Amino acid sequence: MADEDRFHIHRQVLEILKSPKSNVDTTNKGFLLECGRQNVITCVGCSSLDSSKLHKQVEDVRQYLPGGIDICGLFYSVNSKPDIESISKELKRLQVCQLLSNSESIVVCVYQDNVTSISNGDFYVCNKEYDIKQAVVTITDEDFLDNKQLLRTRCLLPLSIDIGQIDSWKTSFASEIETVYESVESDSSFFHLSNSNVIISVDRVSGIAENLDCNSLQDYIDDDDGFTKKKTRKSTKHSKMEYLDFSLYFQISGEKACQQIPSCSPVISQKQDDFRTVDMTVELDVLSVVSQDTPVVELAKVMSASVCNQLNAVRTCVLRHSTDHTFYTPEAFHFRPHKRQIIYTIMYPRNVTDEKLVERRRELHNMLCLPLDKPVFKRSNKVMFPEDITRYGYLINPHIGLPASGVKDGTVALVDGLYSYHHYMQDRFDDNKWGCAYRSLQTLVSWFRLQGYTDKPIPSHKEIQQALVDVGDKEPKFVGSRQWIGSMEVSYCLDHLIGITSKIMFVNNGGEMSTKGRELVNHFQTQGTPIMIGGGVLAHTILGVDFNDVTGDLKFLILDPHYTGSEDLKVIQDKGWCGWKGLDFWDKTAHYNLCMPQKPKAI
């Protein structure tokens, strides 16, 4: 750590460490999480811990992390200004260096409870002899995943649990996992890059030169028709979560497989009895994060460690949720809490609903220093990979990639999270010239679905109309009609269908929209929900604003539901169906109502 540039920390981590404890039910002690490469450690996250369970929590935290991310140190707060001797004494008491033995030194952040920020002087480095010295850190705002390569490893893992002895099934299952664990760590396991001839194991590489780096692997992937895919430019931080796809295999014949067999004469015994087993097939779905310049020969070690972490998660999930008579198969879900620099993988028991996992999610929020007022680990919050987006059927966040609004020195406040674009003529339903507010409502509901606030489906036009009849706003003959609805009706439907309340902003005419900049900025900064606006015979969705509170310059990011074409993002952006609009977009003779949904507190 002598070089000043060897330890970097993301600014977001500093903000988390000093975040108000009223929003995160954590202790003032935890782990620092990093991704190291070429002697440079970048701290990209943190997790809280109970020092009385320190040894157990090292394993607990690692099972949620992708390969390539690990614990690099510790943070804790003190009442008075810390000194080197007291830090060394505390670390010895916790036996931290023995726990984190995979590193020559660990990073320690020690800060006072009564200060409002964390500075360079709060960081220290400790070696295995507990010699402490002050560290020089570099604070970064760069999106960590921007220049990284995501690896995804999948395989089907058949497991058999002996339940003949009711009180020993846990031992049987743990033994089964341990056997797989040993196979993964051995040189009889290997990773195959999908649609390629590339095979990587811990001791060899075939199908590609060993001296090449991870960034070269894309050149060796073939399409189904046999043509090599052209290498694409690295995705931006808001684009699809692209990855290199690997399958895990185990060699069951040949010299390497035989090495797993004990070198002694076999003794075979037979016992006739009734045996009862539970068989389950677990789909391992493992992520690893590496630098693009990582040598190919190093990938197997990273992916193997990541698979072993998930095996621990499989064991934890089964032991936690299964009983002597009821067994649940674990399923892997990947989550990237908004703006966090780490993708976490959580194993949930299949067929157990989100409603029954509230306390489990609360534990995860506390451990990973996440606020308790917003769901991030519900199944609907899972990361959407390219194939998930394709299957979803609607465009997700079509505003991503738009040029800047042009407001000089403005404050940009945008929708927070994912939503889908709903517009005229979708779903094989002709609502041209009358269904714009219905489509805007569908976009609003999609936001609450994709953020995990509801699992209710996006309502059809008929279901929206029936909801308005059910709440007494419309007569029964309204169902099946082609009548317009407005902002008030949208708010009634949000409340009735998914339990979401809304604020209504009244604007006398389009010219008055120029006075609403501060209120709209505040809405997107505090609520982050898309807004439905209705005026005259038109309805639109506001996704954000760019506002200069000195000059009053104001632009609106508009999603237009009047589009009737196909899901062509280029057309939608180039033709302004999703884009920045000025004050002249609003009709100065029309009265406008804005339906501003309020996000509930949930977990």
From TrEMBL:
Domain of life: Eukaryota
InterPro entries (alphabetical): UFSP1/2_DUB_cat (IPR012462), UFSP2-like_2nd (IPR049387)
Keywords of this entry: Hydrolase, Protease, Thiol protease, Ubl conjugation pathway
Span of domain UFSP2 second: 176-388
Residues covered by the UFSP1/2/DUB catalytic domain: 411-595
Listed Pfam families: Peptidase_C78, UfSP2_N
Alphabetical list of PANTHER family matching this protein: UFM1-SPECIFIC PROTEASE 2 (PTHR48153:SF2)
Protein family (similarity comment): Belongs to the peptidase C78 family.
Designated name of the protein: Ufm1-specific protease 2
Organism, scientific name: Tegillarca granosa (Malaysian cockle)
